[in-house]
């Protein structure tokens, strides 16, 4: 069996210039190109992650806006928030902050 006999067994359309050129182009685009499929998949995964982060931050912004509107509407809630979060006090008051003791190992 010679090389030409093996070459003749390959169907004619697989030996055509256009098929081989197209195959080389596809291999180049899928493997060697700067924007190959691996990079495209990585960029898509990163985009999905950023979309999830965006949704999370939009929900957090809505929560903060609601809390702000609630705090500014009531002076009692504003005072409670200031006392609990920022340990503020009225003049003449003493504030005691209780910190739980850490366990020793």
Tell me about this structure.
The mean pLDDT is 85. Helix 3 (37-73) crosses helix 4. This protein is 69% helix and 0% strand. The protein starts with a helix and ends in a 19-residue tail after the last helix. The protein folds into two domains: 1-33; 34-86. It has four helices and no strands. The chain crosses the membrane at residues 17-38.
- The secondary-structure element order is HHHH
Largest sheet: none
Radius of gyration: 34 Å
Number of strands: 0
Structural class: mainly alpha
Low-confidence stretches: none
Helical content stands at 55-70%
List the helices and strands and how they pair.
Elements: H1 3-9, H2 17-32, H3 37-73, H4 75-86
Helix pairs in contact: 3-4
Summarize the structure.
The protein is mainly alpha-helical.
Structural key phrases:
Septum formation initiator; 2 domains; membrane; transmembrane helix; FtsL/DivIC; single chain; 105 residues; mainly alpha; transmembrane; 69% helix; 4 helices
């Amino acid at each position: 069996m010679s090389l030409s006999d093996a070459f003749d067994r390959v169907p004619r359309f697989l030996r055509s210039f256009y098929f081989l050129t197209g195959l080389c182009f596809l291999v180049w685009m899928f493997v060697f190109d700067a924007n190959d499929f691996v990079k495209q998949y990585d960029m898509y995964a990163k985009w999905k992650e950023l979309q999830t982060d965006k949704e999370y931050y939009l929900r957090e912004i809505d929560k903060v806006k609601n809390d702000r509107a609630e705090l500014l509407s009531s002076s009692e809630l504003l005072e409670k928030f200031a006392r609990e979060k920022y340990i503020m006090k009225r003049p003449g008051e003493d504030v005691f902050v209780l910190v739980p003791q850490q366990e020793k190992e």
